[in-house]
Design a protein that fits this description.
The structure holds two protein chains of two kinds. Chain A is α/β, with parallel strands linked by helices. Chain A has 16 helices and 17 strands. The termini of chain A are far apart. The longest helix of chain B is centred in the first third of the chain and has 26 residues. Chain B is built from eight helices and no strands. The chains are: A alpha/beta, B mainly alpha.
Chain lengths: 495, 218
Amino acid sequence: MGKLQKKNEVEKTAEQQTNESIYKAFREVHGTPVTRREMLASGVIPFAASFAMPSWMQMFANAGVAKAQDLVCSKAGSSLPAFIQIKVNGGFAAGMNFVANAAGGQMVQDFSKYGGGSDANLPLVTEFANKAQFYAQSQFLAGVRTGVGAMGLQTLSKAVFFGVPCRIGDDSQVQKIGLIGAVTKANLAGQILPAMAIEATPTGLQATAAINPGSEPPLKVSRLEDISGSLGVSGILAGLTQTQKEKLFRTISSVTTAQTASLQGLNGAQTLSRLIQCANISNNGLIAGGNSLNITPLANAQFSTLWGLTANTATSAQNFVFGSMVWNALNGNAGAVGLSMGGYDYHDGTRTSGDGKDNALGMVVGRTLQSMALLQKPGFIVVCTDGAVSSAISATPGQPWTSDGGGTSCIYAIYYDPARNVSINGFQVGQMTSKGVADESFITGGNPELAAGAVFLNYLAVAYGSTAVTQFETVAGSRPFSPDQIDKIKILSAA
Amino acid sequence: MKFYKLSKKIKILAAIAVTGTVVLITVGNGCSKRNAFDTGFSSTAIGGNASSSTDQGEVIDPSVKMVSVAYAKQMLDQVTSCAGVKKASDNTVRVYQQKSGAISLYGDAGSVTAPMMMATTNIVAEVCNDLIQQEKTMTPHIFVNWNLSASAASKTLPPNADISDAVSRLALSCWQKAPSNEEVNNMIDLALTDAPTREQSALMVCTAVLSSLKTLLN
């Protein structure tokens, strides 16, 4: 033991010994350095070496602090497109707002059981840059157009839309279509907030995870204060002075850093040590930053107007909650966002109830799209549901919804990019049968998780470009799609 | 004789190994996947690979304990219990309910986030306030000689020895170990920050001890 200690001392260079003495002096006065600035000040990171990570890590180790690499926090935030998944609970008329084609791009001949009548009678319109096909009376599309507002037509002409027809179980909360975990695993991270969602479920949605469950549920948000409350002090701590708050968090950070040494050798110790220290560093910065966080959408007048927000709007109102989550996702504060909308099991013998709900959904999608345009940020929206609806058989479109109809369900995806050229091959992944249900002969037609996987792969295509498939397989931990299947389901790219 | 001793040692080591294995199998090491997160993706996979690492890529040694932190449902109980607070106040429960959404649902090592630590610190502070209020009306067991009930506005702080004593009592209760000199000095330094009242001083010390890693470990 003594020999080993002596050998180590002999091997230290003069520079290392100097750094060690500076470090010891710093530690006596200021405690264990935690932040990059403190490391620089302590000599743990020589300024000249601050851009050469292995060098300063070695010096850190030589200074007697084990596991220096544990302190290398991941880069805050990411430049990936924002990801917003909207789960519509109950099974909306996903197959009769967007109208997918049958194999070979042929029009579906018979929608008579699904509220669309015969192909000859079904009026269609197109929207978005890739001229996606919608039922002319689609209240979802009407809502999107209203939601983007007067200036939004330009936004729609720049966004692309595609649908993935899939048979999805009706009124089920366990469909494997939740993508928040997978997207988080693909490194979509917020600068100061994790992924956020309305639902307090493992996936943040009333759904089971697809592809990858992620490590943790998203932060549950039911009002703006849930966001601000996770970023600052409140209650009894609010009575401390700013200096006291800053010192408190620095002390917690310093004491915790020293205590992580006792974990070494245990499973998960490196991970826990790194994350807890990084979390403390982040919180130190938040406390020191005071009220400078840009987390409320009221900070932007145009954004507030778009979402109908004023200073008097209740912070728990749906518009305020959705607007706040979208705001923080787009400005990089937060990771992926999961929104939920209820009441979509609307087959009550009328078309009125369903149209109203579809319009409300479209409004949220439209506002989200226009938010991207306002802030000039790229973003990916996914709309999914559990099932769909059906009508009495009729050759005339627009029949009342009378029952469930999960065979005609569909997952929607919309991408907006203000800066890059986006190209898309068509407007659907997979196809319908001639009878108006999702075609199970296509890989995604009968498996909701694979349908969600196809959507995820296209998100990765615009986020990662040529390495999208590799990234997909890393997140999935497997290869669910063969190369020829990938050719068919990866239809989106941006450059 | 030597052979006998060696054989005895081997037997002891073997017994420890077997016992340890049984304990691990019985109790588990906390790294099993949760059902709620399981996906059926593998059933459709063309290829796959078994993983023996954490979500963060850290290799798992099945013979070693898995570290974890207090999760949402046990957080309040854990800090209330170790602080010796008889009953969390309504205000503390309210703050806990407001903040618990940010706390890890399962306490995985890879689940720690900045909002989680912030929420934890806020909850812990309320528990500490409960402790302070309790110590005002009962014989103090943490802030002994602090005389917290004397005057809320009093800025005459207790001597360092009494601050050190409170830190030691909190640490022994919540860390299950005595604090190091460095930890005590850190806490004394904190307790004196920006001319605090006695209550503020007690609040900061308590919150720092109870928000640190040793307290939060599961």
